[in-house]
Specification:
about 190 residues, alpha+beta, four-stranded antiparallel sheet
């Protein structure tokens, strides 16, 4: 009887320690993902500002079409993760959300509709897909005034023309300030599930 009690207590302690380690690991992964998402946003913003300064709003379209994927690829390679952007209303089909991302983006929309600001919206968890576990992270991208030049309701003819050339199946228009434009999405591979 004493042995069973000691085994039970030991198992409970191991479970608590294991849970604390897992929680700490998730927090660390979220922190590192948050840092990479901020870096992506900062680099992209710098390129967009320069493009708008040099060539007007239409110049920014090339940045999102060509430079943003390069930034994502560089960050993905550097960290050995998948780093990208996605949206429910995407411009490039290569950025279409997967099932998990769609679920999170819809949850972000519900949170926004209930009065939460998209500025600090994020979500993360460990998921299993095809026997492989990964840490998934998303950080909402709020639509701000500069975004609306190419993503808003009143896009100039010049910008619309360039958008139509780059993105004939564009879905990323009609946003208002404060909407959720999309999200940075990060996948960190973990060990193979058993």
């Amino acid at each position: 009887m004493k042995t069973n009690l000691l085994v039970g207590i030991f198992a409970s302690i191991c479970l608590l320690v294991s849970s604390a380690v897992v929680s700490e690991d998730l927090d660390d992964r979220a922190k590192s993902s948050r840092t990479v998402a901020k870096q992506f946003a900062k680099e992209l913003k710098g390129h967009l500002k320069k493009a708008v300064h040099d060539g007007g709003p239409a110049g920014a379209i090339k940045v999102c079409a060509e430079i943003a994927p390069e930034i994502a690829a560089e960050l993905s390679k550097k960290h050995d993760w998948r780093v990208a952007r996605t949206s429910l209303k995407y411009r490039n089909s290569a950025n279409a959300p997967d099932v998990w991302e769609t679920k999170v983006l819809k949850e972000f929309e519900k949170r926004k509709d209930s009065g939460k600001s998209p500025e600090k919206m994020e979500y993360y968890e460990v998921v299993e897909d095809d026997g492989k576990k990964s840490f998934r992270y998303m950080k909402a991208i709020p639509a701000k005034s500069p975004c609306l030049i190419c993503h808003g309701k009143n896009i100039s003819e010049e910008v619309a023309k360039v958008l139509d050339e780059y993105y004939p199946e564009d879905r990323a228009r009609g946003f208002a300030r404060g909407d959720i434009r999309g999200a940075f999405t990060i996948t960190q591979p973990l060990e193979v599930a058993k």
